[in-house]
Amino acid sequence: MIGPELERLIHLLAKLPGLGPRSARRAALELLKKREQLLQPLAAAMVEADAKLVTCPVCHNLDVQSPCGICQDTKREPDLLCVVEDVADLWALERTRAFKGRYHVLGGVLSALAGITPQVLKIDKLIMRAKEMQAREVLLALSATVDGQATAHFVADRLREEGIAATRLGHGMPVGGELDYLDEGTLMAALAARRVA
Amino acid sequence: MIGPELERLIHLLAKLPGLGPRSARRAALELLKKREQLLQPLAAAMVEADAKLVTCPVCHNLDVQSPCGICQDTKREPDLLCVVEDVADLWALERTRAFKGRYHVLGGVLSALAGITPQVLKIDKLIMRAKEMQAREVLLALSATVDGQATAHFVADRLREEGIAATRLGHGMPVGGELDYLDEGTLMAALAARRVA
Asked: Where are the alpha helices (DSSP H) in chain B?
């Protein structure tokens, strides 16, 4: 009863995080009910974002410029680096306006089970970047999960070998929580209380 | 820090039912991470669905043909009509394969608070259609909410004035629940046990 066009739309919508098969059906109907206010602008916004947004070759942030606006921002402290798992985490930290350095988006955390090795995350490239920018501090702003903390340990060890100070987010971050879900106040407190890894 | 292209994409994604501002950010990042597997096919599927799917002028179902496949299906009982609130409810009933008549999608239920009057829902058009098809039964498959049941009462009264039998879904539908969220077994039991309204 549902034709292939709708079936395909629902199937693809269901792949978005946060939408299951049933909510994807509701979303498809909502799109087709509000074609001019929602479906057409959303399709156009997706095509535009795909065409304009590129991954920064320096820090792996998403931006319309390459290198990204943060990498090009000369007002930022040149020897302060923050390592995050994902672009969403970078956004969460930027919303606090409390960090004045630059970022390095890892694109994941180490996981023996998922086969995510230091090679996959290009940890060598991160260490090289920290050395080249003569970083006085590398803040490892990774989630307080087992894999996140194991990754922070691993990167901190590698940085220590190079004589670079590694810090972590301070108290305030709930144990077992994910960085992107913290409220901004807690995240600001954690930034202020960062400590040697 | 988030450019206008991304801001716009996130803003539009957040309008989908089931996605809030935070999950819309995650969805936008997921789309931009999986451009070829997800973003581009989804944008294309949306444009295709918008171009091909039309609302059936007879029953208000969504289909690539007009009138829709169900209205054109000559194997269906010609004098049996089912009134539903939404296309999602029509799909839910079709999944049971237990209803062999045709449908009428109201597009909402009566609500004094929201200003949804019988005129807005074009109840007159529904009564006219039931008369013209000489319906022996009109099944009012509306949600078991206060507004849904008030709408069923109102339509049943109008049908009774025309000498047309109105039925409702039987026991099995949980009180206060919404039709689209029923499992198929419960929905089949409710179809089998429908009673005079």
From this structure: 4-13, 21-33, 40-52, 69-72, 87-96, 123-132, 146-161, 184-192
